[in-house]
Amino acid sequence: MEVSSDREYIYTSSELDQQEGQLIEEIKASAREAIPDPDAWLDEEIKRNILLTTVDAVVGWGRRYSLWPAVCFPACCAFEFIAAEGPRFDLARFGMDAMRATPRQADLMITAGTLTWKMAPVVRRIYNQMPEPKWVIAMGACAISGGIFRSSYSVVPGYNRIIPVDVYVPGCPPRPEALIYGIQQLHKKINKIHVIPDLPQFLQKGKQG
Amino acid sequence: MTAALSGKEIASQLEEKFPGSVEESGQDSLVVKTDSLLAAAGYLKDTEGLKFDYLNYVTAVDYYSYFEVVYQLTSLEHNHTIVIKIRCYGRENPTVPSVIGLWQGADFQEREIYDLMGITFEGHPNLKRILLWEGFPGHPLRKDFNQ
After folding, report:
1. B7-17 and B37-46 are packed helices; what angle lies between their axes, rounded to 10 degrees?
2. Mean pLDDT across the stretch A95-109?
3. Contacts of B140 in chain A (CB under 8 A)
4. How many helices (H) and strands (E) does chain B have?
5. Cα–Cα distance between A107 and A96 in angstroms, integer?
6. CB-CB neighbors (< 8 A) of B131 in chain A
């Protein structure tokens, strides 16, 4: 607006009223636009990051892929296990790279080798020291049944006479592929475990008394 | 290469020192009488020119009519070796003297023979089963062992 120098005030009162009117009209116009949803940005993130699943599936997944084996290698099958542990077969893919020297930190015992009666109390003790939940893979013919030494005076005919066994891997010795297949079978087994136990009967709905 | 001494030569030396101590001698070994084993072994270990200061192994064989205990001795100084044997008759309680006083390395092997073959070593300080457990019936490496 052109303002001449002989004016007493910069703005006349009517001009100020006009300006005020314009301002109000602008605010009114902008206020009519739809208010943006403050949570709108979340939608995409929720789609990407929140999954619905079950406790069983999550805990089973966690247990499956962090099986820490205890050292229990009485005989030659240990070498096949060591090969499986090495870079070519790479048990680290299944989260099994951490060999535990103490059974108190392990949850899987791979019994790789012939067990003698003299050694039996030691193996049972190692098993008892492992915290729950724990699993046992009987690796090789000797671990399953005593193998070619079955009729010997000093050999235990199978680890299942000493400790409970989950998976049996046959072979003399089994190749690392066979051991890995056995481990995958164990994964399937672990996946079926219900983490939260059933409620006691008196707490279940409609089953009182 | 370690030289294997002739059993006959050693036998003649032993006969000279301890008359009547050698039962039999061959090309590569000699059989010593059980009661003169310690004297003969001490002689073989300490005599100049022989100096059998190292015991390679002790083992035992079951021939049904007798047990044979076999010792291979080596001299690290002269680099020669000899096999000496003793025989003990009778299956009930075969007993031979222990050589642990001469060669400390005989300790575990004599225990193993006691465990698996049932031969008692007199003078062994800790003669008990080493591979099998207390209470195991019999001695499994005997030919007549049946479980």
Report:
1. 110
2. 88
3. 153-154
4. 3, 8
5. 10
6. 118, 154
Provide the residue type at A41 as one letter: W
Sorted by where each begins, the domain ranges of chain B are 3-96
The confidence score (pLDDT) of residue A185 equals 94
Chain B residue with minimum CA distance to A121: B133
Q: Does A122 touch chain B (CB under 8 A)?
A: no
Give, in order, the Cα–Cα distances in Å from A137 to each of A98, A118, A182, B13, B16: 17, 21, 8, 62, 65
Dump pLDDT digits (tens) for B67-110.
Answer: 999 999 999 999 999 999 999 988 888 999 999 999 999 999 99
CB contact under 8 A, A118 and B132: yes
Q: What is the C-alpha separation between B8 and B12, in angstroms, rounded?
A: 6
Domain B3-96, CATH number (from 3.30.460.80, 3.30.230.10, 3.40.640.10, 3.40.50.720): 3.30.460.80
> Which pair of structure tokens corresponds to residue A181?
């297949």
Domain boundaries of chain A, sorted by first residue: 70-99+109-191
Contacts of A18 (CB under 8 A, 6+ apart): none
What is the nearest CA distance from B133 to chain A, expressed in angstroms?
6
What number of CA atoms fall less than 13 Å from residue A111's CA on the CB side? 34
Task: Please judge whether B133 and A117 are an interchain contact, meaning their C-beta atoms are less than 8 angstroms apart.
Answer: yes
Q: What are phi and psi of A153, to 5 degrees?
A: -75, -15
Q: Tell whether A121 is within 8 A of chain B (Cβ).
A: no
- CA proximity to B117, closest of B87, B138, B86, B89: B138
Q: Which residues of chain B have pLDDT under 70?
A: none
Gap from B139 CA to chain A (nearest CA, Å): 10
Q: Which CATH number fits domain A70-99+109-191: 3.30.470.30, 3.40.50.12280, 3.40.50.300, 1.10.10.60?
A: 3.40.50.12280
